[in-house]
Amino acid sequence: MSGPRTVGVPPVQAADLFGAALARCDNGIIILDTKSRIVFWNLWMVDASGVPVAAAQGRTLAELFPMARLARIGQAISQALRSRQSSVLSRALNPSILPLHRAGEEREPIEHQAIVKAVDARGGLFCLIQIYDVTDAVHRERFLRQQAGDLMRLADGLAASDKALRAMLEASPIGVAIVAADGIIRFANARLAALFLAGEDNIIGLAAEEFFTHPRNLLGSIAQPIDRMEVRFRRRDGSQLWAQVSAEPTEFEQAPAILCWVYDISDHKKTERDLTGQRDRATELVRARTEFLAMVSHEIRTPLNGIMGTVRMLDGTAMDATQHSHLEMIRYSGDALLAILNDVLDISKLEAGHIRLEKQAFDMPLLIDNLVLLMSARAGEKNLELRSQIDDEIDGQVLADGGRIRQILLNLIGNAIKFTDTGTITVRLEQIDAGETRVRFRLSVIDSGIGIPREAHERLFTEFFQVDPAEARRLGGTGLGLAISKRIVEAMGGAIGLESIPGQGSTFWFTLSLERDRQGHPALPKPATSRPKPRAIRPRNILLVEDNEINQKVALNFLHRDGHSVTVAVTGRQAVACATSMAFDLVLMDIQLPEMDGVEATRAIRALADPVRAGVPIIALTANAMPGDARRYLEAGMVEVLTKPIDPDRLSRAIASAVADNTGAAAGADRSVRIDASMIEALRNAIGSDKVDELIDLFDTTSKSTIEEISAAAAAGRPEVCAALAHRMKGGALNLGMTSVSDAALEIENAIGENCGIAALKQRIGALTDAYKASVSALRKTETASTATPA
Amino acid sequence: MTSYFTPEESDAFTEIFNIGAGKAAMALSELLDAPIVFSVPFCVVLPLDEAVDYFRRRFGANICVVSQDFSGPFDGSALLMFHEASSLALAQAVLHSEEPIAAITELEREALTEIGNIILNACLSSFGDVLEREVATSLPRFLAGPSGAMLRGARGFDVVLVVKVDFSVEGREIEGYVTFVLNVDSVSAFRDAANRLLGTLH
User: Are B114 and A93 a contacting pair at CB < 8 A?
Assistant: First the structure.
């Protein structure tokens, strides 16, 4: 059908076709003649203007729309018709070119623009007006413009806050960086650049790793935010930067990144390092000092022990009274030195953390009462009242290291007595708290003494500290007591402290949370005894009373090994006979004996006419372990009880202790002043009255402190020290013929051997005090008397 | 530059453009319902290459151009050129926008095109009036881009008649240029127009 000829359209038909096409065209088409009259008005124009074709033809636009402002389109039409100029009439500048509306009730205005131009045709010049509906575009534009406006305002707001934030960031003393996943710094504030580059300005774009001191993938590994981690960096100039770094994952320009906050702590670090260094040096110095002291103490103690051992051996040899008193002085000084060394060693061990806490059952109120009784004598010497104040309803049965608690209290009470001149010292026990398994106590020692200045409180518990060194020298002491106490309390999980008003007194307190004793252990404080080594002893002449052959052999074996000479008796009666006819240094007495038991035999020996033989030390050897037995034996006059099977160490120790002075003395002697006048007489003759006077003064002085030491040792749970001290005092007393003093001292030794209660011990210490005071006073009188009546 | 026109002829051109500008100002004032003042301080004729350099120096980067081809006693292209910033200011003024306009979108484009259309038609009809001839114009085009590219697009032409046009719209001073890119034949028609005007004046 189609061919080249059929493409063309015949002219007449073409005019019809183009006319029809223009008429139905979807834009407005208006054609005007040179007189501006409408020659063509298409259907779009009919719909939009409401003017039918017939009504439009031959009329001008001004005639059709008399009310409209047509200046602009009129000008364009005239330009087109007069000089063939083309014009565009935009919607932007022409809100309404012609009054056009959509068909329908609403008569919605049609937003439109127009093109006006000249058209030359066969019939002459025409003006072609094309009208375009741009309503949709205008609406879209309006909408976009509004959105754009909103966005602009938003952007302005954001820009303003961004600016403010940036200003804040720039002024911030904290370096802020955003580091991308590839480790490149993508954002940084001025502070960060200043921190790392020191002067150079642009850090953005550098690899963060450049500033790490050692390569590590700090950034790659951030899954969790970092909070104030201390990191050491290297600045561009090579110097070190210590910083506290916080970091968290963030997004930067749509990619994962890390937001870092870097706070310079180099100064803190330096200070910290300086302080740490100083502290380490100080700690090292203290440690070295303590070690040195421990070493020196230990080194001193060894020869000192040699000295003391030699003194003990000398003690048993024949010497005159002067020599003996000098020996006593050596012994006294040696013991004092030993006590100091022990303190030093104690604190060294505590400092090194080598403290081993025992766990014994005891009754706390009883412990305190006993201590108060013990220390009353010392308090009494200064006319001070020492008393206990114990809360009612105390759950006193506890499992703890009673020896250590006694040590602390003894120290606190000792200090209180030392630094108080008048008034009262109260030892107070309060129960703060009681749980199912534990009970918490507060123990205080309240004095009315000189008080302690506030500034000294803290240092008071440090080693070797003395509030007033001059005073300390006068009063004696190592300055270790409180430090030791503090260490012990802390090792027990407690706290120690003080309240003090200078001039009014001090309260030293400590709190302890202790395990309750649910087993109902006997409420007797059992001192924590450490086993002293057997002393080297001289061979003795011993009577062994033992009926069992095997036991005999065992005991003989031990005794011979130590070099003793032994006589064996197999019945009580035999024993009494031996003790009557021969002089022994010691009797080892079995209890269960044929004919006469050990207790009866002991009583019989004690009743002998010869005081020396009656006073021979008798040690019970028994399988009896019934409570109360020991007391019965001691009441009978035995000095020590050993249970079978025989422990060779204990045997040696008991022998050494019992025979250190074998001067006979009767147990249970009355406490009136008994002085061996012949002894004093002999002394006066030998060394002169002046020397005897000196000796008495010396005895007075040393005895006073010895009694204090006995009390302290008893309270500290060191009965063997008590016994040794009492024994020493006994020796001194006998040299001066003070029989009642030596008896009282012996009673203490006996009481300790009996494992008596602290109350009984205290009582005997009191008796010893009375006896020595009375005897010294009596001796001074005889001295005066003998001066008045020379022999 | 004066190889094509004498100073008197140049003065005559300036006068012709002033008449055109006056007409344009009137039309625009009516359209925008605001007083608009045009002035034409000078006009020069430059070879195409020199004109390219001139506008590059003058505008630097981007310019906005409304161009219309014209035909009749002379053929060529007429361009109204603005610095981009000036075109934005002009658009803001004619659109009565309170916010500064940041970019030329469709709306600004239409408005600037019609303004340019009115100015260029007015200027060219001034020539037509002097010559008592029609100077037909095509529909205006809006172009934005580097100044050099605008004029280079007019290859085949030899000289550029550059007419400085200053506007004052709503208190804003806007600087623009009307340029006529002509071939040598058209230059003589221009000269003819200038001489006709000079003749009527003398």
Answer: yes
